[in-house]
Amino acid sequence: MSAADAALRERITELSVHIPCGGLRGPVQLPTRSPSDRGVRWQSCRHENHPVVWGDADVSRERDLCIICLRATAGGRSRWSWLACQDCRAVNSAVEAAWGFRPFALGRHSVMNGFGVRAGAPPEVQQRQIERLTDFADGIGRLLKWRKHEYRRLAGHFDPQADVPLRVWQQELPPGPRASRDAFARLIGPEYPLPLP
Ligand SMILES: [Zn+2]
Ligand SMILES: [Zn+2]
Predict the structure, then answer these.
(1) Is residue 46 part of a domain?
(2) Global pTM value
């Protein structure tokens, strides 16, 4: 571990938003695997000299800010994690029920979103599935663009170089069903009014 990384772990004592990138970094509590294991691990952001890699996880992260509201957290160690929080997924489902299609694919793995090219399927079915996968990739591009835009707006409340404890971030920017609806409405635009909750 570099001296700079070691100093960082001394200084940051709870999971925090690194304002320059919006990544969460700091100690996280994982389930313990043995009596001697306290289950505390370091979650890195990309600004460390040697970001920590967890050998037993698909993704070396326990939590991230939700890709839609950026207030609640989502994500996790598994490739089967959701990119959006529960409240944002609820809005996504409500819209799907009202409009007959799901606006965003919020699973990290394309299979969670009902896509994937089935081996042995007839070529025309495979072609359709490939088209859906391409749409999925576009959808993720839109979400990443939104995330960048919304993050910049919210991060403006804080010192641009700080590590802000997630606790403080959420005091200032409370998550919840209202915040999720508001973010969602701005993400899809005023020409598509959201169904009533
Ligand atoms: Zn960072
Ligand atoms: Zn959310």
Answers:
(1) yes
(2) 0.86
